[in-house]
């Protein structure tokens, strides 16, 4: 079991000088510079980022909502360990939420929706993971087109929150060639099911897609741990 991970990230000298307090804090948590279970004291963080206490307090509340920070009465805030269970729990929840959102979309999809999915997928394939940030934006557009109009705003917002967490974590690692191939095929399969009006097929396809992405993140973390553990022991 993975107790923690500290993926490769910017050095202190490379740490971004610009960005919101929320972005800076999240980066430090994901990179491991803020350790799992580390206490997060508002006055210390305000001094660290050369700001007042209010932006820090607001950032901690936002990170709490995303699951990166845990707040306990009389004990304050601490870093939530980003471990195997944390990631597994998120993608298992998404394996329930996204198929339901997808089923609804199949019943509502129009020719214009399919044309837009095809357009976005074409750009994803043209980019072919060359620009990871562009891929992330296009992938968000692809799935957001299907989920963005759903009547259950809580479900759609939960998808968005979990997606941002997994996206932030996965951005620390390269996407394997096998996963790249799988992502492109899974998107194409999904479009085909939507075009055919096959809600069950589309639901099953998105469940496989989510599971594949979650397992890829976990395997990348395990791989990194296998590399760093011997070095730390030596």
Question: What's the structural blueprint in terms of helices and strands?
Answer:
Elements: H1 21-31, E1 39-40, H2 42-48, H3 53-66, E2 69-72, E3 76-79, H4 84-108, H5 111-127, H6 132-147, H7 153-170, H8 177-195, H9 199-233
Antiparallel strand pairs: 1-3, 2-3
**CATH homologous superfamily classification of the largest domain:** GntR ligand-binding domain-like
Distance between the termini: 21 Å
Adjacency order of strands in the biggest sheet: 1-3-2
The coarse overall form would be globular
**Which runs of at least 5 residues are low in confidence (pLDDT < 50)?**
1-18
The oligomerization state is single chain
Count of discrete structural domains: 2
CATH topology of the largest domain: Four Helix Bundle (Hemerythrin (Met), subunit A)
Question: Percent of residues in helical segments?
Answer: 55-70%
Query: Beta-strand level of the residues, as a percent range?
Result: under 5%
Number of separate helices: 9
Integer-rounded radius of gyration: 19 Å
| Strand elements, count | 3
* Helix and strand composition category: mainly alpha
The CATH architecture of the largest domain comes to Up-down Bundle
Topology as H/E string? Answer: HEHHEEHHHHHH
Largest sheet: 3 strands, antiparallel
The CATH C-level name of the largest domain is Mainly Alpha
Residue-averaged pLDDT: 87
């Amino acid at each position: 079991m993975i107790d923690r991970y500290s993926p490769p990230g910017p050095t202190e000298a490379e740490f971004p000088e610009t960005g919101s307090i929320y972005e800076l804090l999240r980066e430090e948590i994901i990179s491991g510079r803020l350790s799992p279970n580390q206490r997060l004291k508002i006055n210390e963080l305000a001094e660290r980022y050369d700001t007042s206490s209010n932006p820090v307090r607001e950032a901690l509340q936002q990170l709490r909502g995303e699951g990166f920070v845990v707040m306990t009465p009389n004990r304050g805030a601490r870093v939530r360990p980003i471990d195997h269970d944390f990631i597994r729990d998120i993608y298992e929840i998404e394996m329930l939420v996204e198929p339901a959102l997808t089923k609804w979309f199949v019943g509502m999809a129009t020719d214009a929706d399919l044309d837009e999915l095809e357009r976005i997928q074409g750009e994803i394939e043209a980019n072919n993971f060359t620009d990871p940030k562009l891929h992330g934006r296009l992938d968000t557009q692809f799935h957001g087109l299907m989920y963005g109009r759903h009547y259950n705003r809580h479900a759609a917002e939960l998808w968005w929150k979990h997606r941002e967490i997994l996206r932030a974590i996965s951005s620390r690692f390269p996407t394997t060639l096998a996963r790249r191939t799988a992502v492109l095929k899974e998107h194409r399969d999904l479009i085909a099911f939507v075009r055919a009006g096959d809600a069950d097929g589309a639901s099953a396809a998105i469940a496989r897609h989510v599971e594949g992405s979650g397992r890829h993140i976990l395997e990348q973390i395990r791989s990194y741990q296998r590399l760093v553990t011997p070095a730390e022991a030596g």
